[in-house]
Amino acid sequence: MKNIEYRDGKLYLLDQTALPNRIEYINPKTKEDYYYAIKSLQVRGAPAIGIFAAYAMALLDDDKYELKEYLDSSRPTAVNLSWATSRMLNAYESGKTLIDEAIAIHNEDIAMCKKISEYGLSLLNDGDGVLTHCNAGALATSEYGTGLGPLLLGKERGYTFHAYTDETRPLLQGARLTSFELERARIDVTLICDNMASLVMKQGKINAVLVGTDRIAANGDIANKIGTSGVAILAKHYNIPFYVLGPYSTIDYNCPTGDDIVIEERDPSEIKEMWYKEPMALEETKCYNPAFDVTDNELITAIITDRGIIRKPYKENLQRIRYND
Ligand code: MRU
């Protein structure tokens, strides 16, 4: 099941908001369709947003400079979005065929995810219990994924893992998407509420935490789905390795620390109403709904990229993999 497919001159997008109940594809045509698909999370996950935006840049006839600005403004935290649209703009300026560039970005992501999954798998043991937060599987990328990649690749190689997936309030990517993907891959998965992570760690069920990321600052601080930093703090308390997995394109060397990462704020209705038959709070009740939080680098055991496994000190070691930019 592909999340993004370019076929016969058209782009098909698996609508992630319909999962796990319905498998529906949409066919965006205008720049507003593309913007809405990203904003409403029909397509989500940092690498997948970048791939999708690259196709938008290739397929739409709009002014490429304005289009880049427009698409970039849809979701500010995932650096992969502006990284992909910048690359498409460079291709446009140098007269390349844009659809070929978009397909290259898509194919490169498949290769990067495979490498990340290989590195991640080398850190796990057969039989491990693994906690995940949000969704960093094939739905969020191209194939395999980042955070889920080692589990999916390991399954192919005959490993048995026991995955625990945080439901991931408020948008439930863990429940709707991660448990769906792992069930389909026939990997043992148990869904837990976000506030149960401490208990399963205390009970000795978790050997490693694997998460994706939307932006890695130059000092190794990372932004990921809201709640990730709490999981990292718990992992430190219980002495469980906390691994962050993401492609090289997720490193933002122009962003010195996590404090410099722009955090997207989303509509309060996602907390109060979205998944309920009736509102769960009064209309006048204030809500604060940041989509991401920042995990301090000191809580991270290793950052796993397609260019290798990076350990502390992150500032120096992230510079070491900076070549061929
Ligand atoms: O708001 P979302 O669902 O796009 O958030 C996604 C995440 O936080 C993922 O973990 C991250 O993008 C990495 S995806 C490989």
Can you walk me through this structure?
The protein folds into two domains: about 5-110, Four Helix Bundle (Hemerythrin (Met), subunit A) (Up-down Bundle), CATH 1.20.120.420; about 115-320, Translation initiation factor eif-2b, domain 2 (Rossmann fold, 3-Layer(aba) Sandwich). The two termini are about 30 Å apart. Helix 6 links the parallel strand 4 and strand 5. The chain has eleven helices and 14 strands. The longest helix has 24 residues, at about 100-120. It has a seven-stranded mixed beta sheet, with helices on both faces. The chain is of the alpha/beta class and about 325 residues long. It binds 5-S-methyl-1-O-phosphono-5-thio-D-ribulose.
List the helices and strands and how they pair.
Blueprint: E1 4-7, E2 10-14, E3 25-26, H1 31-39, H2 46-59, H3 64-72, H4 79-93, H5 98-121, E4 129-132, H6 149-156, E5 162-166, H7 173-184, E6 188-192, H8 197-202, E7 208-211, E8 215-217, E9 222-225, H9 228-237, E10 242-245, E11 251-252, H10 269-272, E12 292-295, E13 302-305, E14 308-310, H11 314-320
Parallel strand pairs: 4-5, 4-7, 5-6, 7-10, 8-11, 10-13
Antiparallel strand pairs: 1-2, 2-3, 8-9, 9-12, 13-14
Helix pairs in contact: 2-4, 2-5, 3-4, 4-5, 5-6
5-S-methyl-1-O-phosphono-5-thio-D-ribulose (MRU) binds at residues 41, 44-47, 78, 134, 136, 140-141, 145-146, 173, 212-214, 224-225, 291.
